[in-house]
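Folds abound. Consider this:
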Amino acid sequence: MKYLMTVLLLLCILANSAAQNKVTLSGYVKDKSTGEGLIGSSVSVQELPGTGVITNEYGYYSLTLPKGNYTIHYNYLGYVTSSKQVQLTGSQKLDMQLEQNTTTLQEVVVTSRKEDTNVKSMEMSTLKMQVAEIKNMPALLGEVDVIKAIQLMPGVQNAGEGTSGFYVRGGGADQNLILLDEAPVYNASHLMGFFSVFNADAIKDVQLYKGGIPAQHGGRLSSLLDIRMKEGNNQKMEVSGGIGTIASRLTVEAPIVKDKSSFILSGRRTYADMFFGLSSDEDIKGNDLYFYDLNAKVNYSLNEKNRLFVSSYFGRDVAGTKDFMMNWGNATATVRWNHLFSDRLFSNTTFIFSDFDYALGSKEEESEFTWKSHIKDYGIKNDYTYFLNTKNQLRFGLHVTYHNFMPAEVKPGEKSYVNELKLNSTSALETALYLSNEHQITDRLTIDYGLRFSSFTNMGPGKVYLYDEDFETPVDTVNYSRFEKIKSYHGLEPRIAAKYELTDASSLKASYNRTLQYLHQVSNSTSAMPFDVWIPSSTYVKPQLADQVAVGYFRNFADNMFEGSVELYYKWMDNQIDYKDYAEILLNERLETELLRGTGEAYGAEFYLRKQKGLLTGWISYTLSKTERTVPGINDGNPYSPRHDRRHSGNLVLSYSFSPSINLGANWTYSTGGAITMPVGRYEYNGKTYPVYSERNGYRLPAYHRLDLSATYAKPRNEFKKYSGSWTLSVYNAYARKNAFSIYFRESEDDKTKTEAVKTYLFDLLPSLTYNFNF
């Protein structure tokens, strides 16, 4: 930590001495129609080739240049590229508003500069998607889903038929950090995983980091999914929504004070339960099955140097019958304060709350009980961006998070035979300090290097069992009081990435990053189930660790109409957790005795070609990959494939605009089957029959493939009409492929001495119709 601060101080001294004859141009790049800041906009200087910056997460940029006259170009994908003539005799602020159409702005020259972000940016192993593009894709039951769109990209695997869980480059589902306006989301699924919690109407920006994760982020091994909510239209009131087969949505956004503050409120609810009441079957009539969520956000510009954001999310699933109930949900809240210390030093301070909880229970008198569990986070982040000069951009900051874990608490009813139970609750403090610098060494070579120091302290109240040599029988118990330290861990996480531009249309990129993960998910399901439990690193559970290297070749074609890339990666993982054979993980107070630890590796090649202009747009991707685990005590210590290992996967995503009113979409996806363990024999002992299983995950499910189609008719809104609407017809699984959701085994009905496998599937051809509106 002392070393980091010393380096920072030296860099600041050097910057001050080097900048004495220079001035700074800074400001925000925004969407003209809504006032939203545009994340990742390119700001470049025509007279100084290779000089430019990218706007940060709030659309802010800063350029330090010698005094003089310049032409500044502002560019963002899907917006008019604009230029501004500036005379820099002193530091000045210049905000730029970009339009989504070809209307010429005053004092702005519309240029023909093409998009080349794929080649020019530092980012690799990164997927960025626009919500408008996601909305054009076919959707399950008409519900546009951010995570299902991510699953169609190279290096990302789905968790099963129709589910919104995902795996990235061989990592587990719990190794993905999902942030909504910087707050962690621990369970991103609705309806047992078939839909995600993210309402596309409230989302502004979606970015997935598969590798090369920036130093300001940590806590997971495999990926970062960074989702930002809209800020609300600060120019005019706008209402939008949709009525679909399974759910309806409504979004309202408007200025509070025009150009200064705005709000957005977006809600969604399914209504399958409303039809249960119409059933003549009394067993169905009283059932519940629905989810709802609500997004809200307010922002206010206090003055030129201070801006405040308050955002929140609340969502819940409810399922149950007359005798049984289950509900689960997330709640997040963030308060963010943007402050400009100077035109080159930008800070963001964020206060964070996140809560995931679930409850289930029986309503029958003799077996009545309520089972509850939760994980809560309280955090603060203090992040800084210092635009040292046009060649160096520093990021540094401090993050502190307090975790509270309550794995399970069971309370019986007054006349119930169920026993009361409360598993060991605990808490933890996680901190991180980081420093990174994006350094443009030459016009063609840029390096981004950084270091993150993280620490984790598991604290009471709680108890730790002491075991004998077999690590199964407890011999003593140590009790810890509130906030008393139980176990601490810490580590350094270096990050480095490099980009070398071979030509104006091609570049080579490489990255290395080390990540530490202090939280672990205990689950025996491939999909995101509500009763999965998160546990902290502790006396017997060490932090997971991963090192990943990646190299890539990026090339644009046909005047940037096509962008392509090939990436190779290799990942080493340590302290990987898996379960003993026949492990008992449900309501187990001594869960550590069921866990085994080992190593893992994952490697692969990802191919990606995308057409981003014209009437026909879309992409094709292919991933060749392999991931293995080696855990003493499993599979005789030999390497084995985890369930999400799939050798081949490919996706084809197309969107064709016949006219401004008619759009057709198609998605086709293919992957080899996931790994499973199967019975390969049986034996009898004392008159009972027992199965003999294969090696761990030694067999494969059948290959998975599916075609989805959609057609959208939209009546364009002209200047005389304030209302617009569109109809979207989607067909999920258009050729009715019976993909295996699971396989179970039973005695053959024809021959009781044999065992047969039975495949279950969820979806046949499934159409849906959605009406969307905006005014």
In short: Confidence is low (pLDDT under 50) at residues 102-114. Residues 206 and 227 are 5 Å apart (CA to CA). The radius of gyration is 27 Å.
